[in-house]
């Protein structure tokens, strides 16, 4: 063996050997069922197809690979199903930035051309993420790889949309949606960030009553003033009318218990077309919502005032706010500074504009209730401090899910309209002449929410039956509501079973000082550079050591460099053990050494404890444990005792073999390399029994 371990020479070679051995690929589900073997399944969270990996991806690859290597060695039929995501808005957004650099915009191209351009762009880059996952050692079954826009996946996603529609769980309706006028699309409530903002509170006199608002420009679309019916100051005014300043329209004063008596003056203006609470007040009042939208929507999807805003038409929202405030004259009694939380676009951070649009919604109540029941019964368990509670909170308070997106990059909705009216049908193909297809695409999460089901259903024969429900869903906690929650809701709806037994949530990877990694601080680490420099094993070990489900962890180049010492430690121990082979004098001592029994017992104990930790998915503790036992017990003490003849060579060699097996899931490359050197006639370590 060489004096030092050289990861550069061995990693790619070893990976190819693993891949060629077929060990990543379990039998087709049908054949697995015949063997009666226990299955272990992880569906990989699909990274964006066009992005190189960041350190968060390296984290999930490491943790999942440790799980699958461990269970594979235990003799289970292991499927780790990889894929990539078209990532609708994210990708279109990145592509549009490139267009801007070339002086173009998405509006310069027709739909088909734009789609094709993004398709080409994504496919040019889509090999990168896969190659990088391989560099990290991901022992995934690439023969079952899926992309979210594969034709068979798209077909399944549409099929499930048809089913939801047929059963009344998808409907089309005019509602307020969270619209970003910059990005030009609606979002679900999950994609809206909330930021504290210093604004002004305007006190405006409407006849006999004073209202408080942060958005005076929306008064042009007011249809009422609301007070709390319990409010003794205003109770007697309910049913009376006031004249809307500037506009001159007569509007009623209504009672609604949602009005907070403590806020402002306790009287609020009601603008249903531009505020979610006001919309609900109007629905409760039984007003005609179509008319309200037709006559009182005063802001358009372009972020400008509409013709309903009269002389303010064409102004931006900010311009209109200033103009209205100055036009109000004496009716504007007072303005004061006001700190409040504003919904902003998670992509571009502009203020989100609630706008009425006709869109498709998923009725979430029944779906969410079943997901809650799966948590209650323990059918699905969430690992990660407090995230179970967060998920329950989301599931309990969810509004109907808007799944229409005004972008081209995604699955175009299989919905058709007669051009002359508003009737629609849902269907795979056009119902006939004169029908045009919906231009919106599905929310990305609508298709990725079906991921465990559709990837297995379109896999090899019997895959769904053999591998569903999956064993572990391992992903970052920040996509718990976007993804994990939707997979539970849709998975249970489609199959009657929650798609996974355990959800393992990993935290953010922060820098060595615990700061968030960001371009502006300049502390972002590139996982592939570190692999290049220190080897994949070193990065894997640095990421996983002492990580805890649901909690953030710190990693940086120093930590990775430190872990290279560990890989070298394993290599050097291998050299020592290999040299024992030729030592004749040592063999004479075999069988009568004082410490051999203790040594064997200790190896048993380590294996038991490590197995327990891994079975309980405590992967960070497991890494720490086996690291310490190998370094500080085996290398520091036992090798020394062997040198003194207290432990026989055979026993030490056996112990080392056991350690290579136990270390393999964590540091697969160096252990495989040492295994080849020391036990050259044997099969690959990856296929060795635990
Ligand atoms: Zn935006």
Gist?
This protein is α/β, with parallel strands linked by helices.
Explain the overall architecture.
With 690 residues, this protein is an alpha/beta fold. Among the domains are: 185-354, Valyl/Leucyl/Isoleucyl-tRNA synthetase, editing domain (Isoleucyl-tRNA Synthetase, domain 2, Alpha-Beta Complex), CATH 3.90.740; 406-442, no CATH class; 529-687, Orthogonal Bundle (Isoleucyl-tRNA Synthetase, Domain 1), CATH 1.10.730. It has a 4-stranded antiparallel β-sheet. Strands 10-11-9-12 form a 4-stranded mixed β-sheet, with helices on one face. Strand 5 and strand 6 form a beta hairpin. Helix 16 (527-534) packs across helix 17 (536-544) and helix 18 runs parallel beside helix 23. The longest helix has 25 residues, at 111-135. The mean pLDDT is 92. The structure holds zinc ion.
Topology:
Blueprint: H1 7-21, H2 29-35, E1 39-43, H3 55-73, E2 77-81, E3 83-84, H4 88-101, H5 111-135, E4 146-147, H6 151-166, E5 170-180, E6 185-187, E7 192-206, E8 209-213, E9 224-227, E10 241-243, E11 250-255, E12 267-270, H7 276-285, H8 289-296, H9 317-327, E13 332-345, E14 353-362, H10 365-377, E15 381-383, H11 387-397, E16 401-402, E17 404-405, E18 415-418, E19 424-426, E20 435-437, E21 441-442, H12 444-448, H13 451-457, H14 463-467, E22 470-476, H15 480-495, E23 500-506, E24 509-510, H16 527-534, H17 536-544, E25 553-554, H18 557-580, H19 584-588, H20 596-615, H21 619-643, H22 649-663, H23 668-678
Helix pairs in contact: 1-23, 3-17, 10-11, 10-15, 16-17, 17-18, 18-21, 18-22, 18-23, 20-21, 20-22, 21-22, 22-23
Zinc ion is lined by residues 180, 182-183, 345, 347-348, 350.
């Amino acid at each position: 063996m060489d004096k030092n371990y050289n990861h550069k020479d061995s990693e790619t070679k070893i990976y190819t050997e693993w891949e060629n051995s077929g060990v990543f690929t379990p039998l087709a589900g049908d054949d697995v069922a015949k063997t009666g073997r226990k299955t272990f399944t992880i569906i990989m969270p699909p990274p964006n197809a066009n992005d190189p990996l960041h350190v968060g991806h390296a984290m999930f690859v490491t943790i999942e690979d440790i799980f699958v290597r461990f269970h594979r060695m235990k003799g289970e039929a292991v499927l780790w199903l990889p894929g990539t995501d078209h990532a609708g808005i994210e990708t279109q957004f990145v592509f549009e930035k490139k267009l801007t650099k070339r002086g173009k915009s998405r509006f310069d191209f027709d739909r088909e051309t734009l789609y094709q351009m993004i398709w080409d762009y994504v496919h040019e880059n889509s090999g990168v993420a896969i190659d990088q996952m391989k560099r990290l050692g991901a022992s995934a079954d690439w023969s079952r790889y899926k992309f979210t826009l594969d034709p068979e996946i798209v077909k399944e996603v549409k099929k499930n949309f048809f089913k939801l529609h047929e059963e009344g769980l998808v409907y089309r309706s005019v509602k307020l949606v969270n619209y970003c006028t910059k990005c030009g699309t609606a979002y679900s409530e999950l994609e809206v960030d909330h930021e504290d903002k210093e604004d002004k509170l305007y006190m405006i006199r409407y006849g006999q009553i004073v209202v408080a608002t942060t958005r005076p420009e929306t008064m042009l679309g007011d249809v009422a003033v609301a007070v709390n019916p319990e409010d003794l100051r205003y109770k007697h005014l309910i049913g009376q009318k006031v004249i809307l300043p500037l506009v001159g329209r007569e509007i009623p004063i209504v009672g609604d218990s949602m009005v907070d008596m403590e806020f402002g003056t306790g009287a609020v203006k009601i603008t249903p077309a531009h505020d979610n609470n006001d919309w609900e007040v109007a629905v409760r009042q039984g007003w005609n919502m179509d008319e309200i939208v037709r006559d009182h929507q005063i802001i358009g999807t372009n972020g400008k005032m509409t013709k309903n805003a009269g002389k303010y038409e064409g102004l931006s929202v900010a311009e209109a706010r200033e103009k209205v405030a100055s036009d109000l004259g004496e009716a504007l009694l007072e303005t004061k500074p006001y700190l409040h939380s504003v919904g902003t676009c998670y992509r571009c951070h502009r203020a989100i504009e609630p706008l009425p649009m006709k869109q498709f919604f998923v009725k979430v109540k029944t779906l969410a209730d079943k997901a809650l029941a799966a948590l209650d019964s323990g059918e699905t368990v969430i690992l990660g401090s407090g995230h179970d509670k967060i998920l329950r909170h989301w599931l309990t308070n969810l509004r109907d899910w808007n799944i229409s997106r005004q972008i081209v990059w995604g699955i175009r909705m299989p919905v058709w309209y007669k051009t002359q009216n508003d009737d629609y049908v849902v269907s795979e193909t056009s119902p006939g002449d004169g029908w045009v297809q919906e231009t919106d695409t599905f929310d990305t999460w609508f298709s990725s929410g079906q991921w465990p089901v559709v990837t297995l259903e379109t896999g090899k024969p019997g895959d769904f039956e053999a591998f569903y429900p999956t064993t572990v869903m391992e992903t970052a906690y920040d996509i718990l509501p976007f993804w994990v929650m939707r997979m539970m809701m849709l998975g249970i709806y489609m199959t009657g079973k929650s798609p996974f037994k355990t959800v393992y949530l990993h935290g953010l990877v922060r820098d060595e000082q615990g700061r968030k990694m960001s371009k502006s601080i300049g502390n972002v680490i590139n996982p592939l550079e570190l692999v290049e420099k220190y080897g994949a094993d070193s990065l894997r070990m640095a990421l996983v050591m002492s990580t805890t489900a649901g909690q953030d962890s710190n990693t940086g180049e120093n930590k990775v460099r430190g872990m290279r010492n560990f890989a070298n430690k394993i290599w050097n121990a291998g050299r020592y053990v290999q040299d024992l082979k030729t030592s004749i004098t040592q063999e004479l001592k075999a069988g009568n050494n004082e410490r051999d029994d203790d040594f064997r017992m200790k190896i048993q104990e380590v294996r038991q404890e490590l197995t327990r930790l891994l079975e309980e998915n405590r992967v960070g503790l497991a890494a720490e444990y086996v690291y310490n036992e190998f370094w500080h017990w085996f290398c520091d003490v036992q090798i020394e005792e062997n040198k003194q003849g207290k432990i026989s060579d055979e026993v030490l060699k056996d112990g080392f073999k056991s350690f290579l097996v136990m270390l393999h899931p964590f540091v697969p490359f160096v252990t495989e390399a040492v295994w080849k050197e020391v036990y050259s006639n044997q099969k690959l370590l990856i296929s060795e029994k635990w």
